[in-house]
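ARCHIVE CARD
CATEGORY: sequence design from structure
SOURCE FIELD: tokenized fold
FIELD CONTENT:
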């Protein structure tokens, strides 16, 4: 989810409280007016994490509650946009799991901003772009993935494939690549299919 520069978001409970309504009645009201959450469904995270809350553009909700015309959400990217973890990982060229692991291990040190009462972490587009630019300008890395971040699972498979082809001059089978990379057979199969396309 991208929160556009200068805009704020609110969760369903916040919106319902502001209107003095039951949350489900508020959800139906927003739906009838065509006001969808700015973070597209499903509102869940990978693995066993708790679902992320649906968040609405606060200006649109306030306009709806005041019976004013609903303002459009800006469509143009801005440096001050706030990106959620899915969008941030995408901008950095990382799979979501790699982004989360790099944050947990301290290899991505950007401090997120916490949006709304739900404390949903977001990162400024300008900060993420600075990481990408720093990586692109690093001659030792030759561009590519941000410094200190982890290869995607697909890239690990392709690296192992290249290594075996170059050092042993043969084609490895899927089981070897699973053992060498620690990824699932399905991931190996998908990476190999990409190479063959």
């Amino acid at each position: 989810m991208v929160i556009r520069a200068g805009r704020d978001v609110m969760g369903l409970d916040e919106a319902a409280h502001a209107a003095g309504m039951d949350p489900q009645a508020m959800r139906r009201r927003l739906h009838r007016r065509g006001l969808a959450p700015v973070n597209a469904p499903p509102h869940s995270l990978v693995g066993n994490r708790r679902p992320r809350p649906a968040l609405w553009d606060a200006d649109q909700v306030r306009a709806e509650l005041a019976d004013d015309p609903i303002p459009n959400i800006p469509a143009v990217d801005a440096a001050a946009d706030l990106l959620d973890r899915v969008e941030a990982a995408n901008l950095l060229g990382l799979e979501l799991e790699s982004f989360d692991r790099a944050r947990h291990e301290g290899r991505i040190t950007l401090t997120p901003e916490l949006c709304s009462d739900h404390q949903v972490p977001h990162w400024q587009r300008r900060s993420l772009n600075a990481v990408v630019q720093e990586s692109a300008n690093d001659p030792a890395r030759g561009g590519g993935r941000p410094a200190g971040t982890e290869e995607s699972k697909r890239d690990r498979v392709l690296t192992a494939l290249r290594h075996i082809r170059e050092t042993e001059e043969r084609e490895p089978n899927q089981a070897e690549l699973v053992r060498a990379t620690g990824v699932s057979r399905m991931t190996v199969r998908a990476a190999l299919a990409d190479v063959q396309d």
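CARD ANNOTATION: The first strand starts at residue 2 and ends at 3. Residues 153-168 form the longest helix (16 residues).
SHELF: design records, drawer C
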